[in-house]
Amino acid sequence: MGWEALRQWGDDVARIEPLTGGVANDVWSVRVDGRLAVARLGRRSDADLAWESALLRHLDGAGLTVPVPIPTVDARLFADGLVVMTYLEGVPPETPADWRRVAGTLRELHRLTRGWPQRPGWRSSTDLLHAETGTKVDLGAMPLEGVARCRAAWARLAGRPTCVVHGDPNPGNVRMTADRVALIDWDEAHVDVPDLDLVLPDNAAGLDDGAYDVAAQASAAWEAAVCWDDDYSVRRLAEVRAV
């Protein structure tokens, strides 16, 4: 149905302009009943969108600042691959103090989602010690030596507790004001070891040297595998030490 699905949010709704930053989705600012919002059209399954919507509503209810799905006129949280969410103002983090606030917000996310079920079709980094595929990851497409290096990095996380990780806490996915930190763009969110979220500028999460090395290696391996094989993933794989 494409953008025609936007009509399911009522008569007073209109697209305004495309927003940058999305790769897998078509993202626009929209106006719904006089309110500025964000609409995202993609190819996610209904099960995937239901998982994301439930997560965001849970986090919002627990006090975290996240985009919240705006229901259609018949109370659905998504329709035909389209999701409409609240718009969040703010600026990206810049200073070490900003990033420490981001680290605190990520740790709260991790605390609030212990025991959360895995996103449909996804695998965690430690699942991939034995599995070959999961959503965007296809280890069979990578060089065998690269797979061995990634798995060696992920093996260092084995046995650790898991929770929801945001998956891509880069500056473009953070909106800050004086009194809150908002995390946006939850496309890469899934259940995994929280360390993957904590490789932040200036080691803002305060990891000790050993923990930071484990997290940085595992994160580089994840990004190499999930994006393989564009230039960025090749650069990330080069950061993963040889076995």
TrEMBL record:
Keyword Transferase: yes
Domain of life of the organism encoding this protein: Bacteria
Residue intervals of the Aminoglycoside phosphotransferase domain: 16-199
Cross-referenced InterPro entries: AGP_Transferase (IPR051678), Aminoglycoside_PTrfase (IPR002575), Kinase-like_dom_sf (IPR011009)
GO molecular function: transferase activity
Keyword Transferase: yes
Keywords annotated in UniProt: Transferase
PANTHER family per the UniProt record, alphabetical: AMINOGLYCOSIDE PHOSPHOTRANSFERASE-RELATED-RELATED
Protein name: Phosphotransferase enzyme family protein
Organismal lineage: Bacteria, Bacillati, Actinomycetota, Actinomycetes, Micromonosporales
